[in-house]
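Hey, quick one: can you model this chain's 3D structure?
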Amino acid sequence: MVGFGNIIPNKFLGLLLLMIPMLLLSSSSSSQAAAKEFSVGGKDGWVVKPSEYYNQWAQENRFQVNDILYFKYKKVDDSVLVVKKEDYFSCNNNNPIHKMDDGNSTFLLDRSGHFFFISGNVDNCKNGQKLIIFAIALKDTLSHATPPSRSPASVSHGHGGGDGGGWSVRVNDDNRYCSNLCCNIVGCFCC
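Sure thing. Here's the predicted structure for all 191 residues.
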């Protein structure tokens, strides 16, 4: 009986062993999904009383770097503001990071982290016309898991992006909840 080592020459075996890591790396980088466009509010668009709450809709979707949010609304009555976290919770429209008011607005998720959107009409915002999006870069989910954050995320306008979770889970005894749970090959964590 002929042994395995006699069938495959040593040079070929060495080349094969060098090629395997390169093939694995190229397949993981090509597996990154193309950017998607999400229509906020679905068929309802950006309105005061959508058929599904905006944050419920956001938790049912996964957002990646370079994904685009599409907001359709009546430009005479409304607008979309990107705001800081504290302005989101208080419906403060005086200090927007970015304002969209053309009735057919797109917003590029250009970094990882939280994005906070409110209606430019304060009454609409107070009636629930607001949205939190969490974006994580696809490469973050393929690398090692990061420990859960014990401090709230802050909003900054920069570069990065992502793939977000989908459940609301309690992370500690002070009744703070994760808006998204992210899982990778190592485990799940708040993101």
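One thing worth noting: The chain has six helices and eleven strands.
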